[in-house]
Design a protein that fits this description.
By secondary structure, the chain is mainly α. The chain contains nine helices and no strands. Helix 7 packs across helix 9. About 10% of the residues have low confidence.
Length: about 170
Amino acid sequence: MAERPADLDAARRGDPAAFGRLLRTWDADLRGVAWSVVRNADAVDDVCQSAYEKAFRQIDGFAGDSSMKTWLHSIVYRTAIDHTRRETLRRHESLDAVAATPGLASTSDSALDHLEVVDAFGRLDPETRAMVMLTGVAGLSFDEVAEICGVARGTVASRVSRARTRL
């Protein structure tokens, strides 16, 4: 779904309701990206809150070189990575909690296979998990993910390919 030009213009003028409508368009995908990096429901809320505040404060600087969707994904991704780097004592949730998380679809009818995939996904580094989520779940192109993550397109392609093989 594309952003509505009227909402984008109003948000750039500081209208929080218009900005909220823009955020709702991609909130589930943005939360999925945050989850793929931080792996903790409370941290997802913190990361998204912080990222959304940053985006609102910086929206007048949104040049439109990329889509609003890409711009927001980039802010959430970087905020999640920064959060993970600052975290000194990471809490690890049980596999049961991870398996119960919406948005991580099972690749098999077998619960054991599902847990193995979830475990393998959890062993990926945070940046690669985010790239898999951005391409596989959010449906972004390798070019868009490269822009969001600040890496070359080939880096995204190779990391996602290797991750898919491991999964």
